[in-house]
Amino acid sequence: MEKRSFLEYLAQEAGCDCLSDLRLRQEQWAPRIIEILENINIDEYVFSDWKEVTSYLTDTELSVLDGIKTKKEAKEYIINWMNSKKH
Length: 87
Hints:
Distance between the termini: 41 Å
Number of helices: 5
Number of strands: 0
Structural class: mainly alpha
Order of helices and strands: HHHHH
């Protein structure tokens, strides 16, 4: 059986109807996504997966995220970014 992508995992665990809901309806899903990220085993996915998720969720080009060098930094970036959008 093929492993789900990190984005597919987040969408399914958050209860999103489709993958695009992760980005298009973040106000609805952000609290759950943050909870999932806070509890995930960071080593479940490789660094490139974390960068892809960071880029997708924050709608930021990968080249802009060059300062992120670790999975932990990517996780913190996403959580901080989502928390900043709550206001």
